[in-house]
Every structure is written in C-alpha cells, then in structure tokens.
Amino acid sequence: MLSIFYQGLPAFNPPQDDIVAELSEIESKLADVVPDSSEARALTAREEELQKLQATINKSFLSKPPAPGSREAGIGPALMGSIWVCVGCSVFFLPLGVGTAVFLEEFKPRNKFLRWLSDMLQLNISNLAGVPSIVYGILGMTVFATMFGLFGSPNDPFFELGTKFKRQYVTEGMQVVFVPVSERDEVPTLSNGMTALKSDGTEVKLNIIGDDDEFPEDDETLNVSLLSDSEGGVVAENAWYSFRLPFGRSVLAASMTLMLVILPVVIISTQEALRAVPTSLRQGAQGLGCTPWQTVRNVTLPAAIPGIMTGCILSMSRAIGEAAPILMISGIVAISMGPQHLMDDFSILPLQIFYWAGQPVNEADPHNFQHVAAGAIIVLLLVLFAFNSVAILLRQIAQKQLS
Amino acid sequence: MKQILPLIVFAITACSFAVPTQAQSGLKDLEGTINIDGSSTVAPITIEADAGFRGIAPKVKVPVGVSGTGGGFKRFTKGETDISDASRPIKYKEFESCKANGVSFIELPVAYDGLTIAVGKSNDFVEQLTVDELKKIFLADSKDGSFKNAKTWKDINDAWPATEIKIFSPGTDSGTFDYFKEVIVGKSESSMRDDMSVSEDDNVLVQGIAKTEGAVGFFGASYYFANQDKLKSVKIVNPDSGKAVEVSASTIESGEYAPFSRPLFIYVNSKAARRPEVKVFVNYYLDNAPALAAKVKYVGLPKEMGDAAKAHFKRRKSGTHFWEIKDGKPAKREGSLSELYTVENLLN
C-alpha cells in the first residue's frame, strides 16, 4: 500500500527537478561505490517509477474514458459515475437511516405486539450489518434493477418519464437523419417529401426511393434519400429528470443498493449517538411540555448530530469503495461518458480498478495497467477525502449551532 | 493542495466537454447506445473496437460489461443486450432460451486465443508435453484406482527429477477453465483434480508459477506473452501431426497449436443488428478484428474466416454453427472453426 502511495503521489506535483537531480546524484555516487548493489538498483527503479507515474496520472487521465491501452486509459466516466452514485446514495440513506434510528430509539412502543416488532427490527438490523455486500448486490439486482420482473424490462418498461424517441436512419449518401416518433416501437411510414431532422436540428425533406423509382444521381439528393423499406433504429433521448420502472442497471438502482449496504451501519451508529444524549435533556424538554416529536426535533437530534454525522461519514466511505454489489448491478468496465441522468448506464472507480488490476501485466512496460490502477486508487482516495471533508465541515457547523 | 486544486477544476470542466476525436463522414452524427456484456476474455477486443469506433461515431455510447460468458448470455437471451462477448460457443440450453424469448442472433468469430501451459524459468527439464501427459498431471485419481495422477515430475518421465508438481489454475467459473477441462476431461468420466491453487486473477497465477519450484499452470496466451521473461511455455504435441508446437501468434492462427487454441466470438442480436449504429459498429469490429486482436495480444482470424464472418453479418445469417439435431436430440458438432463455420451448418 505504501509503495502505491509512493508511486502515485508525486504525480500530482509538478516534477521536482531538484529532488530528482539530487536522487540521481546520490544514485550515481552509490553506483560508483558499489556498482552492482541492489540498493543502487532499487534507487534507479524508484526514480524511474516516479517519472513513469508523472506520465501516467496527468490531467487527461482524469477526463479520458477507459481505453484498451494502458497509456490512453483514463477514469473520466468512472469518476463521474462514482460521484453520481454516492451523492444519490447519500440522498436516500440519510433520511431513511436517521429516521429509523429515531423511531427505534425515541419512540418505544408500549403495545406488546409493536414492541416485539420493534425488537425484531432491531435484531435484523444488527444481523444485516454483517452481511457480505455481494449479497446486497443480488438483492438490489432483483428488487431495484428488475423489480421482480413485475414491470417489464428496461427495454420495454411499464412506466417511463422524460424519454423521447426518434427513429435513426442512414441515408444513401451516408448521412444521419432522424424522424421523431412518439413510442418506442412505432415505425413511421416513409413518404416522399416528409420532414426529418439532422443532428444539428435543421429540417430536411426526405426523398424516398421506391422499388420502381430511379436512383438519384447527385450527392445532394442522395444525402436525403432513403430506400422505402429502410428500417432505421430507435434512439431514446433522455431528459435529465427521466425516470422509469423498473430502474434497470442504472445509477438509481446502484445508489439504492448501496443504500441497503450501509443502512444498518448508519442506523446502529445513529442509535448510539442518540443514546449518548443525556436523558436529562429529554426530561427537561418534556417537563416544559414538549411533545415527543418536539423533543426529538429541537433537543435530541441537534444534540446527537455530531455523532450521527460521524457514523454517516464512515458509512459513506464504505459505500464509495464497494465494488462487489455494483459488479452485480452494472458490471460495466468501459463506457465513454459519465452518467447524464439517473437512469443512465455507468461505471464506478472501484469496478474500473478491479478490472484493470486483472489485466495482463508486463512489468517491463513502464505504463502497464497496474500503474493505471494505482493512479485510479489515488484518485478514489482523493474523492473520498473530498466527500469526508464536506461532511466534517457540516458537522462542525452543526456543532457550533448547538452551543 | 494549491497544486491539486487547478487539476480538479480542470478535470470537472474536461469531463463536461467530452473530447470528440476526428470524425469521418456523415456517420459522426450517429446516436444511440449499444449494450455489450459477456466474457472478460473477449472484452479487451471489444473495448479496443469501442475506442476505435469513437473516432467514427463519437456520440454512440458503447458500455462494455464483464459478467462472464455465461452471465452475458443470460442477459443476451432475454434481449437485454445487443451484443454478447463469448469465449466459447453458445450452449444448447442458452440457445433454447433464446428461441423461447424470440431472440435470434448472428454468431461471429472475432479472434483466436491460445491456452498456454507454462512452467517457471527455473524448470529446465520440461520442454514439451503430450495431451496424455497433461491428463496425468491434471486429472483426479479415478475412484476404482485404475488411474493415478502424477504427484512428482518423475511419475511422468523417469528422466525428470522427483520434484513435487504444484498446479496453478484459473477459477472454475472462467471460460478458460471450462475450455481446458473440455480438452483434458472431454467426454470421459473423470474430473479435474482438486488439489490445485486456484485464482481468478491470472496475474496471481503468473506470479505463483514463476516463484514456485516444480509449478505448472495454464491461462490465456496474452498473459504469457506479457510475462515471457518470467515463464517458460511448454510445447504441446499436436495429436494429429505428432509434432511439438510452441505457442505463438503464427502457430495459433495456422491451427498447428492444437488442441489448445480456441476461437472467441461475439453474438449479435439480429433485431439490434438492424439499427444503424449497431450495424456500423459490428462492421467496424469485423473489418478491424485482426488488428484489434493483435493489439490486445490475441491472434487475428485468418483472412478467409474473417471474410466468412463478414459475409454472415452482411447477409444476416442467424443461428449457431455448433449444434445440430441428431435423432431429435441436440448434439454438439465436432471439428475446427473453419470446418464448422459454414452457412449449411446453421441451426435456427
């Protein structure tokens, strides 16, 4: 692990020429004294490693899509995917996790049956905290991605919002034209002179060549000519708010699966934080005539916020590093762009690292996939730090308000 | 931190402006998504194709998954994916479920992969092995005691030292393991021995074989090509010609390196193949398959095979070449890819 750090970190700094110069000086001195010592060789190797990584992790590494060659590979889409999934996850787990903990801790039922129910819930949550994440992956796959097959498939969903369809044709002049359609399966009847759209939105009049028609001669006409039996293919355009049932292998399904993974941890740590709030505070509030809800809202929760935040930060760190459940849900290791909406395909950094780490490694190659994977790990850590520092900042602010 | 901040800002801006590479002709306006899933062995070629395809149609999204050949087919037979990567031909069960779901497909070979049987560099006695000798190494003892596998190298050849044989094998879920097992076990009653070191990560196998005395193992040839300085490949005696053949691009392509070379496939959903973006992508894939395969250290198909695949796709010849119905029962066709891959052999 340390060596990965050593290899990766200098790459984020501009080349420190003085250090490199010093290193090579020391190394040459060493080489003079003990020409074949392993130490001297190690030093050379390290220096080489340093330069290699400066070449590996650079600006375009963060933006480029994954590529088959380790030299061209980048983490752009995976980085965006990780951010989308984790932000989505935190939107779901925060209210649900904290809400459950508050219910279990602050609203103890008096009814015997309800008490038994609450105990069962408590027991299940404690057990679930130890379940391997791949199991959650399978669960999430069934519950969120396919929804038990109750709502059709992602290609033929039961409910769809924010998706527009168009039929894509390639004309005889190898130009791409679109004909908007209202449904996925609708095949427009092609007629002479009907309008179609080019990709920049300009309208063109189509020229349809029937079986008996003469084939056009000039390029202009060819560019807008379609055979009368051209089928084209449907293309879905999704708005940023698009939504469908079932979720399919989407960002949303992944966020909700990760939510399941970390929910038990969040609930348990939130419960601990609530328990740590002195009873006298609650009793004071109740003595002043507060309802249980007012007590929770104005007294207990604000007092427990720092503890709750700590639990959430720790869970978040787990969520961002999970590869196994996402391997079940998405399994995509190469995608050219990051997600554009919640129903989009995606890849995440841990998945990308997992795939790269398994690629054939030629150690003589200064840019092999192990270096790329190491670079991606460093970036993953930085993203983690970024998320955590925001959370810590929020915690600090919350603490100040209380005093 | 001062140095990192501009980097992050740059990254975020760079991400929002995807960089279109130089696009050709009117096809640069193509849009759509081509869903691909399947074998992690074939994925590098597909990813290579995707990278090249971005230069032609930058707006088409091609997410490539690695659920494994079986996992990929599971989705493909339901019509969830447009193209399935496969390191083995489709199984009859999968073929049936395709039919049940009304999915028809075009079977296209894209490259050859060679299984390498490797020993460590320090092993100076093993130069070549026959399939029978490999059986002696890799098969489990039979229950009735009629077959006993080799515990030391001396058990195979008296001239070799009595070093213990240590075996490294890919995971039993991988297509690589399946293929090796098919050759070694075949239709016999026996099974692979279970005292092997198994790892899903082929790099672990490479390290294990390189560092363990008396070790032997197998994996895809690309891992051997990347680690030639650490490993020694064992020549395999071709059962037909009786000649010991070294694994290399040329011997795999010519078919001399038998029986451990296997074809890799993509299966294209016939309905999806009507979509312009899929059509252009598959055409690009097939046109460039030899070059793409060579880039990721696989072996391109010979020209006639490549042409046959292109012709199949052009004429939309759907169905599998590897199964036939004999006396009302499915039977696997035997033979090399070039013998089987003809229109007459198609089963729909």
Kindly describe this structure:
The complex is a heterodimer of chains A (403) and B (348). In chain A, strand 7, helix 8 (219-223) and strand 8 form a beta-alpha-beta unit. Chain A has 403 residues and is α+β, with helices and mostly antiparallel strands. Helix content of chain A is 56%, strand content 12%. Mean pLDDT of chain A is 84; it is low at 1-15. The radius of gyration of chain A is 29 Å and the shape is globular. Chain A has 3 domains: 2-56; 76-148 and 249-402, MetI-like fold, CATH 1.10.3720.10; 159-244, no CATH class. Chain B has 348 residues and is of the alpha/beta class. Chain B folds into 2 domains: 21-113 and 263-345, Periplasmic binding protein-like II (D-Maltodextrin-Binding Protein, domain 2); 114-261, 3-Layer(aba) Sandwich (D-Maltodextrin-Binding Protein, domain 2), CATH 3.40.190. Chain B has 12 helices and 15 strands. Chain B has helices at residues 4-16, 43-53, 68-77, 92-100, 131-138, 175-184, 202-211, 221-226, 249-254, 276-295, 303-314, 337-340; strands at residues 36-38, 64-65, 83-86, 105-120, 128-129, 166-170, 197-199, 215-220, 231-233, 235-237, 244-245, 261-269, 299-300, 323-326, 329-332. In chain B, the strands form 3 sheets. In chain B, strands 1, 3, 4, 6, 7, 8, 9, 12 and 13 form a 9-stranded mixed beta sheet that branches. A 3-stranded mixed beta sheet of chain B has the order 5-10-11. In chain B, strands 14-15 form a two-stranded antiparallel sheet. In chain B, helix 10 (276-295) runs antiparallel to helix 11. At the A-B interface, helix 4, helix 5, strand 3, strand 9 and strand 10 of A face helix 1, helix 2, strand 2, helix 7 and helix 8 of B.
What is the end-to-end distance of chain B? 62 Å
Query: Terminal Cα separation of chain A, in Å?
Result: 41 Å
CATH architecture of the largest domain in chain B: 3-Layer(aba) Sandwich
| Oligomeric assembly | heterodimer
Give the count of helical stretches of chain A: 14
What CATH architecture of the largest domain in chain A do you see? Answer: Orthogonal Bundle
Point out poorly predicted stretches of chain B: 9-24
Decide which structural class fits the backbone of chain B.
alpha/beta
Q: Give the overall average pLDDT of chain A.
A: 84
Helix-strand pattern of chain B: HEHEHEHEEHEHEHEHEEEHEHEHEEH
- Portion of residues in beta strands of chain B equals 15-25%
Total beta strands of chain B: 15
The CATH topology name of the largest domain in chain A reads MetI-like fold
Query: What is the top-level CATH class of the largest domain in chain A?
Result: Mainly Alpha
What fold name goes in the CATH topology slot of the largest domain in chain B? Answer: D-Maltodextrin-Binding Protein, domain 2
Please bin the fraction of helical residues of chain B. Answer: 25-40%
* Total count of helical runs of at least 4 residues of chain B: 12
Shape of chain B: globular
Beta-strand residue percentage of chain A: 5-15%
